[in-house]
Structures are given as structure tokens and as C-alpha cells.
Fold each of these.
Amino acid sequence: MFVALMLTAALAFRPSTPRRPASRLRAGDAPEGPAWRSELDAIDEAMWRRLRRELYGGPDCGAPSSLRRFEEYCGLRRANVADDFRVVDGGRRAIYLEEQYPNLTARAIWDAGDFGWIERVVARVPDLREEVAGRALGWREGKWVDTYGHDGAYDSGWGMVHLRDDRFPRATRALAGAPLAPRYASIARQRAGRAIHTHSDRVPWILTCHVALEGPDDAAYMVVDGERLPWTPGRATVCDTTFFHSAHNDHAARDMHLLHVDFYHPDLGDDERHALGLLHAYEADAAADRRAALAPGVSALEAAFRASSAEK
């Protein structure tokens, strides 16, 4: 298993190579390289052609006017190295280079009342609170996925459980029709006496809504772009998490439980939202294809390692 992990990491780590080709090269133009690299590049290229065929009508067709910004986004996504980012707006926020989306309003804190779907969710807070109390409050610690302190660097006290019909049917129904982005829709918990360090999520085309369900009245909050944003049970907050932010629960004993929803930036049109969702679904398919393509090499290396160990 160790060998498999090392090989997979080695093949995936390409520090000087763009995450995706910057242009659609003809096969004869591609530089020489290992066979596995060519196979992975072919999978990647097939994914982009599939996307263009679905959205534009053909792999070589131009983008319609409603998707011009999306086309520019795709160009930046293909040209930049995964996880590279830049700090912008005088150090107030950070953005992944591959996630730059043109001409979106940058505002740290938004008025939750401007979003009709959020008002409908807030109206169902008593029902959602009852569901969380009956299902999540007694869960063992291992149920909660810490998306911040999971590497052991520190105990953030944050945990998430992704929404599923069988886990939280009422919450799932409450979000019907909401413009959910391909990131998180979950029940979240900020444990008493813990905090998430200041950071940026670096994806500008997603906003985050928190609906506070159960917890202390005045001790749990975020700090977004230097402004305190309280989590008040029965109320919602919306923020742009590209702005540097932290999360806190200063209460000594009571955890804060929230409905956490990542949704599309309101400046995005319906066609752009559909395209972004389709892109991320196709990228997940391509990732599975890449893992399948690497599997024979991983198996062969593991067999060689076992044979070598047996000889010793």
C-alpha cells in the first residue's frame, strides 16, 4: 500500500507543469514523454472535448455569448498549475489562479435577506433544529469530518457531515431549488472553546451561507475581512470566503451547529451555473479514469516490491 501511495503521489506531482494543457495541441505537436503521461493527457483532453460538445454543440465550436466568461475561466483553469494562488485586493483575499472567474462582484459580507431561498430555509429552522438534535448531537467524534485541522496541525473544532436524504431528509428538502455549488452542503459543528485559524477558501464564484441552528447566543461567530459576523441561532449569514476569515466558538461548553451551504455567486447566469456544475462532474469522471489508467502500473510495482521483499 505504501508503494502504491508513493507512486500515485509521484505521478500526480508535476511542479513545473500546468494542471491542464494551455491549448489543444495536435497529437504530433506533443513533446516526448512517458507513456502514462500521454495517457493521462489524452483523458484530460477527452474531458474538455466532451464538455465543449455538450455545452457548445461540438468540440471545436465557439462559446455562445452567455458562456463567454465561462470560456475565459476554462482557459485560465487549463493554463495554471493546481493550487497556485495569488493574494489580491491589498491583501484582503486570495484566489486560486485556476479558479479566476471574470467580472464577479467582490464583497466580503452579503445580506442574507437578498436571497429568497435563504429566507425559506430560515423559516424552517425549528424543523431543522429538531432533526439535528435527533440525529447529530449524539454522534461520536469520528462522524464529523474536520476540513481544516484534519492534517493534525491543530484542533480546529470544526466538523462537517454532508447532507444525504437518509441522514437529514428535512434539510435536504429545505434546500430544494437552492443554487447549490459543487462544494459543500452539510451540517457543520464548531466545537466549544475552539477556532479555525484565519485563511481563504480561494474560489471566487462560490459564496457561503450559514444558518445557525443550535448553540450559544453570542459566543460563536466568524471574522470576515476584519468584521465580526455572529452566528445567531435562527438566523443566516452569507460571506465570500475568498476574503480572509476565521471561525470561533468562545463558549466553554456549548457547541454551535449550523447548516453550511456553498452556492453559486449571484452574478453568474443560469447557463454559467449549469456549465460549472457540468465541468466539475466531468472532472470527477476524468479523475476516476486517470486512477484506472494508473492502476496497472501501481499493481506491477507492488508485485515487484513484494517479490523483492520475499527474496530478502
Amino acid sequence: MMERCGCVLMLYTGSTGMMMIMMMPPGPPPTSYTTDGPWPQQTDHTMADDKASGVELSARTILKRAVELDNSRRFEESLTCYQEGVGLLMQVLKTVTDVTKKQKYRQKIEEYLARGEELKVFVKEEKEASKQHLQIHIEPNSTGHSYENLFGQYLNKFVTCVEVDDPYIRSHHQDQSSQQQQNQKIESIKKSLQAYGIQLLVNYSTTLHDREIRLDTGWVIKIGRGLDLYKSCDKFSIGFCDLELRPCHETTVDIFHQTTLKSNSKPN
């Protein structure tokens, strides 16, 4: 799972709290598309008239905008630009007679089509999923509720930032070391994550109370007990390292999309 690059994990905890979890979004990061790749030079191809040259210029401009929107995580708008830009590039392709140049244009078209299709699926799935509010009730002493099982499906390759608010990560069974030792552990985790392109930022607050996890794709995960939903166990127990097998405290997990809150707040 540790293939994630360019991800930021921010954890907010109480002034005496302790960070005890690493969020590792699965999968590789989205490919970075650019219009600076192997484009055929405008002066190299045989265009019958200035109109064809104008179409290519428009295609470049629209696709450049698509990439900018993509990088800004405005995926729906980006998808529209990818579709329009590819349509124009296909028009240009019809006017090119040189085999080598045709291949270069096809390569560009396939590149943008692939990204467009990827965004199309993601946008559609997010729209459908965002209409739902998932609530999971965890029974006392039940197992099978690892973090991955609870919300791992939302940590897809479109996630680049995870914010965790949990002011009470300080139970005795979670960590029994001094504040200095805790800080040393956090620094070790930071360095370990940096090797995989993940930046960990830890902020302390004396007023924080609510507990939730926020993804920059819009998903919010609220756990009644926060991250401390697991019961303590002996270090030789099979549930010590595998949270899937560790008994849980009773709690409720709510998973919803931020757009749900926006739509519910609109006046009737």
C-alpha cells in the first residue's frame, strides 16, 4: 500500500494527545498530464489552410485548461475540457498525412482520452455516492472493523490530503511514554512517511472536541469514539497488530459527503 506520493496527512489532537495512526491512501497518484509533451510542431505538419491551424491552437488551449482544472481538483469542469479538446484534436488528425506525425497526435489523443474516461467514472461514482449517508453501528466486543474495512474504499488515488481531528488519542493503552518520547515517535513516523512522498503535519489544540476525518475529495468520516474504537489487548494477542481481529468498543461511524450538508442547508 505504501506507494502513495504527494499526499498530505494533517492530524489535529489535544494538547496532551498523541498521534498513533498513519493514514496511507492506497494506489498511485493521478498521472500528471501536460500539454508540453511530444506535440508535433505546428510548422511541421501539412495543413491545407489556416482553419486547421486554428483548430489545433484551440485544442492546445482547451487541453491546457483541462490540465489546470485537473490539478486544481475541479474534476467535472476538467472532464468537459478534456472532451472538447480531444474532439478538436481528432479534427486535426484528419488533416495530417505524415505517418510519424499522425502517430504523435494519436498518442496525445489516447493520453487525454484515458484521463477523461478516468475522471468520467470518478465524477459519476462520486455523484451517486454523495447522495448516501452511510451509518455503521459497531457492537461491543465485535471484530472485523479495521480502519481499512470502515473507510478504506474512500482513500482512492484522487485523495491528496487527509485531515484527522481527534483530541483524545491519549489513553493509557495507546501510549505509556513521556511527552518527549511521544515527540520522538512522531518525528520517526514523519521521516518514514516522507520516503513515500507523504507529508505529516501535527497540530495541537486546547479547544478541539469533535472527532472526524476529512478527505479532500469531500468525504467526511465521523467516529463516535474517534480513532480509539479498539479495546486494549495483550501484545501477544492476535489482535495486537491486526486491527481486523481486535475487539471494539461500542460506537457509531457516519460517512457522508460534504455536498450532502450543502444541499440540506438550502432553504426550501
